[in-house]
Every structure is written in structure tokens, then in C-alpha cells.
Amino acid sequence: MTDIQPRNERINHIGNDGCHSAGLVTHQARWVVVDQHTILQNGYVVVQDGLIVEIGKGKKIRKDSVVDHGNGVILPGLVNAHTHLELCALKNRVKPENGFQSWVQELLAERASLEPENIQKESALGIEHLLSSGCIAAGDISTMGITKDFFMNSQLLGIWFQECLGNDLDTSLSCRKGPRQSISLAGHAPHTTSPEFLGKLKAITSKGKCPFSIHLAESREESIFIASGKGEWADFLTERGIDFSFWSIGNNRTPIQHADQIGLLDSNTIAVHVIQSNEKDFKILQEKGSSVCLCLRSNHTLHGELPDVPSMLKNRINLCLGTDSLASVDTLSIFDEMTCMANHFPEIPPADILAMATENGANALGLDGWAGTLVPGRIGSFIYLDLPADNVKQLMESIVHSASRSAIHRIAV
């Protein structure tokens, strides 16, 4: 792999913020990444009324406005397929040193101690963090419901997920699919939520043709509980007054196999984490067409483990990236997730990592007609990295190693 020297990058959002949206604007750069397989040298992207209308090579003389961004690269906006904005206020307040279960208990206690206004303020800052770090779409998971208005009124594309857990069978739950933003449902996890409730949530999202998200195969505690119905997690649920006696667990199945058994897995399901898994699990996910959202930095912090990414790629599973929350990572930057992936799995081609951060995430969130690649008809919002490169190989390696380390500027067209 080419040695990548540290450099200061400038990340510019290039998007339709209502300024000059009626006219044609041509954006030029030395490099344009259309998708993981198509990289144009001396390319351009033409935007009109907020949508891409043309992609090409060369510097043409045009009647419309032309913006030459320089020797860097224009690439699709990033997609954070799994984050918890309502936990932004917990940054540096919860420590993982005593294990995952202890971390969960501490997180719940700390969250309960916060004023709603503080949670709202930090959630709004979290959205700004996403946008300023090159993200144009996200899947936000909310248990408290406190981030809904912030998300739906933001410039982010994507899905706001109402997360549910326990044994409650709320009859008022619903989802709403939109072209750019949707409201959907998420089951927290099979070790916190009854199979009956999870099945109902999945049925509602299936009827509404919306993606369904669930934390799956994240921890050893979860795997032991699902396989045996016993262990430390069983004791934890009992202490919290959650009756799991009717949850149809304890049949020596893995969390993936359990989710499949109760009908949660299909092409509209996003399985998040998938650390505790095996080859049989990967075959199930591939056959069902489910996406897997990887949150490597969070996994490393909370569990000291990482998922078997190479095996998932071998099984042709749609892999996307998420950051989890600021309760377990330092930033909400997908650039940081790409760098983590590249450092831990150097055998994975940089183009595949970039696809996880863009096109694959858009597909998982049902945004494949709007985001993920730079093609005509997609939303005219993308980013520019001041990241000079002499060839495609160097360019792609630089992108996945280029966490945003300097001043970030947003540009409206």
C-alpha cells in the first residue's frame, strides 16, 4: 500500500441550500469519483435545481456558472447508516472499562440524569457535526423520540428510527416513507425486546415499505442469553423487571439465526454490528439480502473485538458504515470510520471501503435513487476534498485514510 503522508484536508459541502438553485452550476476538479468503479480525471458535475444533470470529463466552456475547485477530488456525500443523536450529550460521560453490561447500566443512569434541553442542544450539534464532516444522509436511532423534529427539519437525507424495546406492544406505532426523509421503526435488539414485539415492528415497516433496523450479534452477553436463556444478561433483565420467560430463546441459536427464525431478516433489514457471528450466519444474511451496518470504532471501544468483515465481503453482503454514538466514539465522522476500516483490514480495497461509506449506505436506507453516487437525477449535494493525488490508486488510498483534521467549510450553490 502506498505510504500516505499526513496532510491538512479541506472538506467542502457542495449542495443545494437554496442559493443560485435555479441556474446551472458546473463543478470541476482534477478528480471526480462517480462511484467506486468510475473515477474521472479532470471531471465535472453539473447541477440544476438541486439535482445532478450531467457528469463528464474535460473543462468545457459553458454559459452557466463554473466553479473550479482545484486539484482535489469531488466525491459523493457520505452516509452514516447508524447513529444515536440523542446520546451526543453523553460524550466523555460513560466509560467502557468495566465491560459492556456495566457500560449499558452507566449509560442509562447518565441519560436519566440529563435535562431534556441539554439532550436536545447536543443532538442539534450532532447534526451539525454530521453535515460538517461530509455526511449528507443518516439513519438516526432514537429511543426517547427527542431528535425527531431536529432530524426531519435538517438538511440530512435518510431515516429517523423510533427505537422500541421490552414487551410493550404499542398499537400507535407507524412508519412513513418519503423520497428523501422517512420515519421508520427499529427494534433495539433480540436480547432486550420480545420476539412478538420485534415481529410486530417488522410487520409495520414491511407494510410501509420502510427499512427496519436492529442491533444484532453485538456482544458475548447477547449470544449467551439468546443461546441459553441464562447468563449475566438474563440476571440484568430480571433486575429491571423484564419478563423474558416467553421469548422462545434458549435453543442454542445465534442471534442471527434467532432473528431469521422470527422473520426479521429480509432486504429491508439493517443488522447493526454483527460481531458475534459465523459462516452460517453470513449465509443467512446473504440469502435474505439484509444489509449489515458496521460500527468498528464503537465495537473496538466497547468489546475489544471487530466483526469478520472479509468473510462478510466474501459472502457478498451489503456492508455500510455507522458511527454508533458519542457515548462510545469521539466523533460522528464517517471519514474516521473509513480510516479505522483501512487500518484494521488493509486487505480490503479502498474502493470497497468508500462504497460502504456512500453507495451501500444509501442502498440500506432506501436512498439509492437520491444519494450514494454522482449520476444524473441524484441530489446535487456532494463534497470536495483538497486532496491532490497523482493517480487513482493514490487517490483512493488517500480518501480512506483522510479523517478530517482541519478547518471545514461548507459551500452552497
> Can you tell me the CATH topology of the largest domain?
TIM Barrel
Helix content: 25-40%
Strand residue content: 15-25%
Total number of helices: 14
Coarse shape: globular
Name of the CATH architecture of the largest domain: Alpha-Beta Barrel
Describe this structure in words.
The protein folds into two domains: 11-77 and 374-412, Roll (Urease, subunit C, domain 1), CATH 2.30.40; 78-364, Alpha-Beta Barrel (TIM Barrel), CATH 3.20.20. The protein is 32% helix and 24% strand. The protein is built from 14 helices and 16 strands. Helix 3 links the parallel strand 8 and strand 9 (157-164). The longest helix has 17 residues, at 116-132. Mean pLDDT is 89; it is low at 1-10, 16-21 and 405-413.
Task: Summarize the structure in short.
Helices cover 32% and strands 24% of the residues.
Short descriptors:
413 residues, alpha/beta, Urease, subunit C, domain 1, TIM Barrel, 2 domains, eight-stranded mixed sheet, disordered N terminus
